[in-house]
Amino acid sequence: MENGSHVNGAAHRKERILILGAAGRDYHLFNTKYRDEPSVEVVGFTHAQIPHIESSRYPAALAGPLREGMLPSTKPVVAVTAVRTGCGKSQVCRLVIDAARQAGKRVVLVRHPMPYGDLAAQAVQRFESVADLDKHHTTIEEREEYEQHITNGVVVYAGVDYAAILKQAEAEADLVLWDGGNNDLPFYKPDLWLCIADPLRPGHEVSYYPGDVNFRCADMIVVNKANTAPAAGIQAVLASAKALNPRAEVFVTASEVSVDCPDLIAGKRVLCVEDGPTTTHGGRPSGAAAVAAAKYAAAEVVDPRPYFVGELKKTLDKYPHVGPVVPAMGYSEQQILDLQASIAAVPCDAVLVGTPHDITQLISVPQPLAVVTYAVADLDEEQQQGLGLKGLGASPGLGKALEGRLAGMWTAKS
């Protein structure tokens, strides 16, 4: 049957569209632009990057009225986005939460979609306790994003239908905090737009879409990880900011790591387990665990790659840039089992866990664990001088600046 409609006696064939994505903005684009557009037919979605979702289908039950792509809110919205995954969005989100709490405001965080299961059932997901992570059958990757905020007393929303999510979030929030997964654009119109850049990956702020759009549109640009990045990388990102987004206020910050059991690291042979997305499609060979191993004087970082089995070995084959670390991959039950077996097989004194969730909820290994945490911090005067930042246009005091910006937002939307 020919797919078309008749207007004034003439047949008009619908434009047939294939949406490329990874179960995130692709669904949001369909929901807000195409699903009720009579002139087009969306024939399907590609599912790149995320394993084990290739055969999933978008449910008809999620059809609804046409809406604009960046949705307005009745509450103030702060959007925290990035150039690439693994730049430090979660750290900056916590700083925004702290600033809002200082003003006595309640924050609800809305996370970019990670719908890897039953899409109709996952249309609107609300996480208030760690038990909700089990209730919604979340993957390791989802737990890495949600758990740290839940344990900080923040309600987290995610799902597929972000108009319905926004309506629920507004009912219990003074501030809606958009946490933009990977490097995607905000789904909600922000009153304050932040973009986190990584000087360990200079140039990515202009060469990776849509992260480059975040970088060009942000009100604030945060050049994070300055304490571990080369000065040349920091200066390159600052030069990009000046050239591409001169109106943005720019901050250079450190990403400070700490561990709960430093005695397990000093002088020991350690295994580094890292955030999965950062060290796979994020392109980084290592992450926070490797930084902590150096900071706390590990005698050796044991190379685990010869011990990878099953799904984890396939991950290494797909991402050969991964260094001597274990990406915490857990998109499926089999991946979690293979992750557990791979870690358990590595001869080491301790496992240094750099993934931001309690991995012991899903796996059990014989080695003792040291847990890495990290937080954004302002550079002191000596650090700024050592990195040659004087005169390059970076502003001091990200936390104080956020408090000032939020104060203006409360007044504007009150």
Automatic annotation (TrEMBL):
InterPro entries noted in UniProt: cDPG_synthetase-like (IPR053199), P-loop_NTPase (IPR027417)
SUPFAM superfamilies: P-loop containing nucleoside triphosphate hydrolases
PANTHER family reported in the protein's UniProt record: SLL0572 PROTEIN
Name of the protein this chain belongs to: CobW/HypB/UreG nucleotide-binding domain-containing protein
